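thread: overnight batch results

M.L. [08:02]
morning all. the overnight job finished for the chain we discussed friday. pasting input first so we're all looking at the same thing
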Amino acid sequence: MSSETVAPELSGDYVFDVVHSRLGFVARHAMITKVHGSFKEFEGHLHIDAEEPTRSSGRLSIVTESIDTGTEQRDNHLRSNDFFDMPNYPQITFESTAIEHASGENYQVIGDLAIKGVSRAVTLDVQYTGSSIDPSGNTRIGFEAAVTINRKDWGLNWNAPLEAGGVLVSEKVTLEIDISAIRQ
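M.L. [08:03]
and the structure it wrote out:
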């Protein structure tokens, strides 16, 4: 891991390398275990201004249907109107509205997360994980980010009570983002 900020020579426009990136999530199931999942289809771009991070920006678009928790029945339920209502809301988007350098390799990225027709501001804690030149001569840059959201804030309200108390699906969901991006 890097302990420095993004170097000035890394300024520029980047696209996500989806083969080497991951958009994941974690939610508690039945109050006792965590279910991990990810989205397999997405695209994104970054504009990096290393000298003035506040002029940087990013955008992400996720194909809702590409949700994958490793269980087809659960994935189909998540695609249904009970959760993402995929036929009516085929995409989840995030667009940055402000970026601030926190310290060292850490940044705060504020942006609008739109799920199921509802857009709300969220703040991602982002860590710059480094850069490299790959064997093809491409400049790559990496970031990790996480944020915990309440799914009900986006209208993802379905749940089922448990006999012993509690509910089947937690309201809190942690979004996990690992990005490798290639300079254009």
